[in-house]
Amino acid sequence: MPEQSGFQTNLSSNAYWWGVAITFSDSETKVHAHAMRQSGNTAALLAAITAFIPGGWLASVTGAFWGRAGNSIANDFDYKNRGNGITLNIHWLPVIYYEVTTNS
User: Fold this and answer.
1) Which residues make Cβ contacts (< 8 Å) with residue 65, sequence separation at least 6?
2) Contact assessment for residue 88 and residue 25, using Cβ atoms and an 8 Å cutoff
3) Fewer CB within 10 Å: C terminus or N terminus of the chain?
């Protein structure tokens, strides 16, 4: 068989009236947590750089927010993963928020 390159996933998702549930396996949870953490760190670094650009305050604040969000979600992934992966529930009613639950 030829060697496959790229990223493969087995995650599944379901849409509900309240939002969407995305289920990750153990390995997918670890990979996505790492990617979100790296993205969050990059956003935070760029936010710090834009703070020194005249008129760059909006980019700085926005970058700092998204950097914190990426790291926070990644930490939730790591904390809730007990070897079976996690489910990310993104709610849009009544307000937008997320929760991470442990897969059994």
Assistant:
1) none
2) no
3) N
